[in-house]
Automatic annotation (TrEMBL), chain A:
Biased composition (Low complexity): 661-670
Lineage of the species this protein comes from: Eukaryota, Rhodophyta, Bangiophyceae, Bangiales, Bangiaceae
OBG-type G domain mapped to chain residues: 171-363
Keywords: GTP-binding, Nucleotide-binding, Nucleus, Ribosome biogenesis
Descriptive protein name: OBG-type G domain-containing protein
Biased composition (Basic and acidic residues): 685-696, 709-723
TrEMBL record, chain B:
Species this chain originates from: Porphyra umbilicalis
Places the protein is found: Nucleus, Nucleolus
Annotated transmembrane regions: none
Gene3D superfamilies linked to this entry: 2.40.10.310
Signal peptide: none
CDD domains: NSA2 (cd11381)
Family according to the record: Belongs to the eukaryotic ribosomal protein eS8 family. Ribosome biogenesis protein NSA2 subfamily.
UniProt keyword list: Nucleus, Ribonucleoprotein, Ribosome biogenesis, rRNA processing
Protein name in the entry: Ribosome biogenesis protein NSA2 homolog
Quaternary structure (record): Component of the pre-66S ribosomal particle.
GO biological process: ribosomal large subunit biogenesis; rRNA processing
Stated role: Involved in the biogenesis of the 60S ribosomal subunit. May play a part in the quality control of pre-60S particles.
């Protein structure tokens, strides 16, 4: 079932004025810029404060609009709810509160408009700020004044959210009667509603709803508070809820009566009440339910009481004649109950009858009303059931009319076909004979078929299934479909295991052919291999090695072994392993490099050329005329101007030795790093210096190099200005973390 | 679905949770700690609001405690002071009292002498012309600078017709025009929102008076017919003078005190 439109749980919380003001001011502070300075351009200052005023106004506006729009309007409500709200919340108060908030909203807008206009003439930060302060202050004062309206609406909201969601247009059973006559007990029995039942009057103080099923439809059952027998204007809020429900809901009314008088009211009083509220029952199915049969009042009923009970169902004045438009003309006071039923809610006897009777009455009435309605009429007008002239009496069977010539022709064709075709195709022939216009149901008249030509028709699997116990019992025989050399083999027993081996593993149709092919291949191979291995012939894509190649392979293996052994020896000696980059820094030993190339089999000229190329790459910055013949610093003096790298080489010529030319300028010679001896360096003498150097190397560099650690040079600050530390507003206490 | 006062109903049927009262007691006991934690944590505007509220609460609590507590106050003991004979130290006190009275009267005299106007605000801070007027540059090259715009609150009479805008020297923008003033009656101590009738005197300059500029200290004429004041002769007074007590251009409204 779709959700009723009347669900008031969705109204949002209405906060009090202080909370509202706090929220809006805090929001304004959070969501608008906060930094402004006196020396800023005046337009910027004005915009800054204008924005704040407008933002606050918009926030107030939104909040008030939400409240005003959330609450339902009386004019658009169903009359039942409109009246119920009037009874519970006082229509005037409700409308006034909402109207005041709507007015406050427009006043807030007005204030903002005025102050924004004045801010346009602000000529200093001070003045703009004062205007903003005044504007926000006036808005807050305004809202503060509506505190009572807000509080009232919040209470109304809470109460509305707890109202049962009654759908005024749905199928409804309405339970009414004096207090304490068993209305709530009935609701508990007839539906799953679990409402409070107590042995005193006015236990039920508001409307309760339960749901029940009848005729596969959903019915809402409404329990009302008890009503007393007095004038309308003397009724209190609790009773008025009942009256509202009775007056506005199109429902079947179950008027509960307690003839045992255990409720504290006599049957006469209850009858009087029934007569008094009868106007409310007009145009509704009405059932009087005499409850509490479990107390045994049926036996103890006095004649007067019996008469009174009977009077519930008898009209006071004339009953309108059947066929008249009954309800509008009928005076309300003359309304009689449609039925009087006896129940006991405690023993749950007679409940089903009451429910059924009420539901049927209401359903009939609703359907009648629907049919009478203009909407249904519009549809009914368009419906037309065509009847053939003369009707069914004249020609009950109405077969198609086929000319005799056509019948004769078809019969001839069918006879010719039947002579040619086997018996199996009888239905086809029949269809042929009947012609395309007529329908021959081969499926529907199966039994007839079988009776006629059961022996000729091909028996299908489904027929077999039907004969042998039907679906689920019959299992199909697949073996009859086997296609074997001899059909008799189909039912042979195939052993699973023969000689301890699974037969299935050896089933291969052409296994003998495959075996023959394999053997032939093997023979061919052995023949070829014996003859051609020695003569380098290609065997199956592979070629045998020559002696020369075998020698090379051996040499490679030897060299690998040697390299591995030497490396192991080096490691055993505890020599420090040097990284590739360190080796590169060491420089190139020209002679070694050349002999290495030659050993690899490179021609002499090529090796020389490559060596020169590599040396040239590492020569350093100087582009001066430097013949590669010059082995050391002595030949450098030819250049017109000494550059820096040359001077270094010259100065440390003795240390650099033959390597001077190949070293890049970025790396100083080793000796320059040596620890100086002197009064300022803290080193006593040369031996002390050596010790220090050794210690330094041992402690730091060895580990650094061997474990590829980060050294001093690797230190870096990757991001000197991390964005999260320098961007954004700083609130209080946000200097170090953000 | 539960309906009506379902919580009450459930309690009526099943009672409270077994630990309900214990939980309530504990929550109550912890509330102090929770409040103190919040007070320590909170910063900024939230802290200001919180502390203000706490301060008010504490003050109220102290007051109620003080009301309930027994008081030990010293009362003047009338019987202790002997009639007739007055000791020397009491004479001394009396003399002091008299001198105080004298000094007050002197102050009063000075005040009267200084105040030229017998009005609520006898003195006003001078306002410079360039604060009141904003120079408007006109002409094709924006070289002409004879036009002025009033940036203070102004009152423009109802039937005012503008001069041809081209020759209008003083512009009084509609955004800064006011028609109402919140007038306080000093004896009734009530405030009314009255219509402005005119600017009687702006103490800054006569030109301001002519232009209808309203600054702090300006004397304005307001319509008090709603107040129901009666003149000495018994006629209903409708126009009365009032002095402006705030800076209208800063507050966006005019507050004034009726001169009675």
């Amino acid at each position: 079932m779709a959700q009723s439109h009347y669900n008031f749980k969705r109204i949002q919380i209405v906060s009090g004025s202080t909370a509202l003001i706090d929220v809006v001011l805090s929001k304004t502070q959070r969501k608008t810029p906060t930094e402004i300075h006196r020396h800023y351009a005046i337009t910027r200052i004005r915009d800054f404060y204008t924005r704040k005023v407008k933002f606050a106004q918009q926030s107030f506006h939104d909040k008030l609009t939400r409240i005003v729009e959330d609450f339902p309007h009386f004019d658009s409500l169903h009359p039942f709810y409109a009246d119920l709200f009037n009874v519970l919340y006082d229509r005037d108060h409700y409308k006034l509160a909402l109207g005041q908030l709507a007015h406050a909203r427009s006043l807030v807008d007005g204030i903002a408009r005025d102050y924004v206009r004045m801010l346009k003439y602000g000529d200093s930060l001070y003045r703009c700020k004062q205007l903003k302060k005044a504007a926000l202050g006036r808005m807050c004062t305004l809202i503060k004044r509506h505190n009572s309206s807000l509080a009232y609406l919040e209470q109304v909201r809470q109460h509305m959210a707890r109202l049962p969601s009654i759908d005024p247009t749905a199928r409804t059973l309405l339970i009414a009667g004096f207090p304490n006559v068993g209305k709530s007990s009935f609701l508990n029995v007839v539906s799953r509603a679990d409402v409070e039942v107590q042995p005193y009057a006015f236990t039920t103080k508001s409307l309760f709803i339960g749901h029940t099923d009848h005729a596969y439809l959903r019915w809402q059952v409404i329990d009302t508070p008890g009503i007393l027998d007095h004038a309308l204007d003397e009724r209190n809020t609790i009773e008025m809820q009942s009256i509202t429900a009775l007056a506005h809901l199109r429902a079947a009314v179950l008027f509960f009566v307690d003839p045992s008088e255990a409720c504290g009211y006599s049957l006469a009083q209850q009858h009087a009440l029934f007569r008094n509220v009868a106007p409310l029952f007009a145009a509704k199915p009405l059932i009087v339910v005499a409850n509490k049969t479990d107390l045994g009042w049926e036996q103890e009923l006095t004649p007067e009481a019996e008469a009174l009970l009977a009077d519930f169902t008898s009209p006071v004045a004339t009953v309108p004649a059947p066929g008249e438009d009954t309800l509008p003309e009928e005076p309300p006071a003359q309304r009689a109950a449609d039925a009087l039923l006896k129940t006991s809610a405690r023993d749950a006897t007679g409940i089903a009858v009451v429910k059924r009777t009420a539901c049927e009455l209401l359903l009939t009435q609703r359907v009648e009303a629907k049919v009478k309605s203009r909407k249904a009429q519009a549809v009914l007008n368009r419906l037309h059931l065509a009847q053939p002239v003369g009707g069914d009496e004249l020609n009950p069977s109405r077969p198609p009319t086929i000319p005799p010539s056509v019948v004769a022709k078809r019969a001839a064709a069918a006879a010719a076909a039947a002579a040619e075709l086997p018996d199996d195709d009888a239905p086809y022939v029949r269809r042929l004979a009947a012609g395309p216009g007529a329908r021959v149901d081969t499926r529907g008249d199966k039994d007839e078929d079988e009776a006629m030509d059961g022996s000729t028709r091909r028996r299908l699997e489904r027929d077999l299934e039907a004969d042998n116990g039907g679906a689920g019992v019959y299992s199909m025989d697949y073996r009859k479909l086997y296609e074997l050399k001899r059909p008799a083999w189909a039912y042979d027993v195939i052993p699973e295991i023969i000689n301890g081996k699974n037969v299935a593993d050896f089933v291969d149709a052409d296994i003998e052919a495959k075996l023959a092919a394999l053997e032939a291949e093997e023979d061919a191979r052995t023949a070829v291999g014996e003859v051609e291995y020695a003569s380098e012939a290609v065997l199956d894509g592979y070629r045998a090695l020559t002696d020369e190649e075998r020698a090379t392979v051996a040499a490679i293996r030897d060299k690998k072994l040697l390299a591995r052994a030497s490396s192991a020896r080096e490691r055993a000696r505890g020599r420090q392993s040097v990284t590739r980059s360190a080796e590169a820094r060491k420089g190139l030993d020209v002679e070694d490099f050349r002999s290495h190339l030659q050993s690899l089999g490179m021609a002499d000229d090529d090796a020389e050329e490559l060596t020169e190329k590599v040396r040239g790459r590492s020569r350093g910055r100087s582009k001066g005329p430097r013949g590669h013949a010059a082995p050391d610093g002595a030949a450098v003096a030819v250049g017109s101007k000494r550059n820096r790298s040359m001077s270094v080489v010259a100065a440390t010529g003795a240390d650099a030795g033959g390597r001077g030319n190949s070293r890049s300028v970025s790396v100083g010679p080793r000796s320059s790093k040596r620890i100086r001896v002197g009064s300022t360096s803290g080193i006593r003498d040369v031996s002390h210096a050596k010790e220090a150097e050794k210690a330094a190397r041992a402690k730091t560099q060895v580990r650094v190099r061997r474990e590829a650690r980060k050294g001093e040079g690797d230190r870096a600050i990757y991001n000197e200005n991390p964005k999260h530390m320098v961007v954004g507003k700083r609130g209080v206490g946000k200097t170090t973390r953000r | 679905m539960p309906q009506g006062d379902y919580i009450d109903l459930a309690r009526k049927r099943h009672g409270y949770r077994l630990d309900h009262h214990e939980r309530v007691r504990k929550a109550e006991a912890r509330s102090v700690r929770r409040a103190s934690e919040y007070a320590k944590k909170v910063t900024g505007i939230k802290a200001k609001i919180h502390h203000k509220r706490r301060y008010a609460e504490k003050a109220a609590m102290k007051k109620t405690l003080a009301l309930a507590a027994e008081k030990s106050v010293r009362r003047a003991d009338a019987s202790a002071a002997p009639d007739g004979a007055v000791p020397a130290y009491l004479l001394d006190r009396e003399a002091t009292a008299r001198s105080k009275v004298l000094s007050n009267t002197i102050k009063q005299k000075r005040k009267e002498k200084g105040g030229k106007w017998d009005v609520p605000l006898p003195r006003v801070k001078p306002v410079a012309d360039d604060e009141v007027f904003k120079v408007i540059k006109t002409g094709k090259r924006k070289a002409k600078q004879w036009k002025r715009m009033v940036t203070k609150a102004t009152f423009v009479g109802e039937g005012y017709t503008r001069k041809p805008p081209k020759y209008e020297r003083f512009i009084r923008p509609t955004g800064m025009r006011f028609t109402k003033a919140h007038v306080t009656h000093p004896e009734l101590k009530t405030t009314f929102c009255c219509d402005l009738l005119g600017v009687k005197k702006n103490p800054q300059s006569t030109m301001y008076t002519q232009l209808g500029v309203i600054t702090k200290g300006t004397i304005v004429e307001v319509n008090v017919s709603d107040l129901g004041l009666v003149t000495n002769t018994g006629k209903v007074a409708w126009g009365k003078l009032a002095q402006v007590t705030n800076n209208p251009e800063n507050d966006g409204c005019i507050n004034a005190v009726l001169i009675v």
